[in-house]
Write a structure and sequence with these properties.
alpha+beta, Glutathione S-transferase Yfyf (Class Pi), Chain A, domain 2, 2 domains, binds glutathione
């Protein structure tokens, strides 16, 4: 048993952002799997204030929202730092881009096949309501989503030329933020193949996926 409880879904990209940071810092956690509809455990741990994953609980302290969890962890366990003092604002901007801009076309591309493969009508209806779009509508966006993804992948790839990590030689929050949409994309090998041509991005993806304790 570890001290940290991490409320999650195994395939949750936002949780994966936090899991990369915990791994790098050598902090173990107890995964507590949540249900897409029954939010009883999330409501209980957050005092009714939050129903999304990830939520982190450590010795009675409860934090939610992936970026806030990472900032909190970096203060509580500073070594090794993932938010450099001179790049804190940049990490926040990159996190915002990753969650809201990079993730958007990836969500459209990945969710329809994922839901079809699950074959669970209740889950499909629940996710369509949450996202505010049917899977057919998501599929209609696919040409545009692929184009957006390729343009974002090209930007990230060009910044990774000659660097092990997005801000330089060490893993930072920027890597965790940018990694999580690609983690989700990799759930669908046909979609992940779209970005294989970006060699710097691919090497970085594997480096972050295979990250060990610093
Ligand atoms: N801004 C939040 C977003 C978290 C989020 O949207 N998580 C998804 C799963 S990856 C979720 O819990 N969605 C609501 C649900 O599944 O009911 C964060 O960064 O933690």
């Amino acid at each position: 048993m570890h001290d940290i409880n991490l409320y999650q879904y195994p395939i949750s990209p936002f949780t994966e952002k936090v899991r990369r940071v915990l791994t790098y810092k050598g902090l173990g956690w107890n995964p507590i799997d949540c249900h897409y509809e029954d939010k009883t455990n999330l409501l209980a741990v957050t005092g009714g204030k939050w129903t999304r994953v990830p939520v982190l609980e450590w010795s009675g302290e409860v934090v939610w929202n992936s970026a806030d969890i990472i900032k909190w962890i970096d203060r509580k366990v500073p070594a090794p730092r993932v938010i450099p003092d001179d790049a804190a604002g940049l990490c926040e901007i990159i996190d915002h881009f990753a969650d809201n801009t990079l993730f958007a076309p990836i969500l459209m591309l990945v969710i329809p096949d994922l839901l079809d493969a699950a074959g669970d009508a209740k889950l499909k209806a629940n996710r369509e309501k949450l996202i505010g779009m049917t899977t057919s509508k998501m599929r209609e966006s696919h040409a545009q989503s692929r184009e957006a993804l390729l343009s974002f992948a090209a930007m990230i790839d060009s910044n990774l030329r000659g660097k092990d990590f997005f801000l330089g030689g060490s893993f930072t929050m920027a890597d965790a933020s940018l990694y999580h949409p690609f983690f989700f994309l990799a759930l669908n090998p046909a979609n992940f193949a779209l970005v294989q041509e970006f060699k710097h991005l691919m090497r970085w993806y594997e480096r972050v996926r295979d990250l060990k304790q610093a």
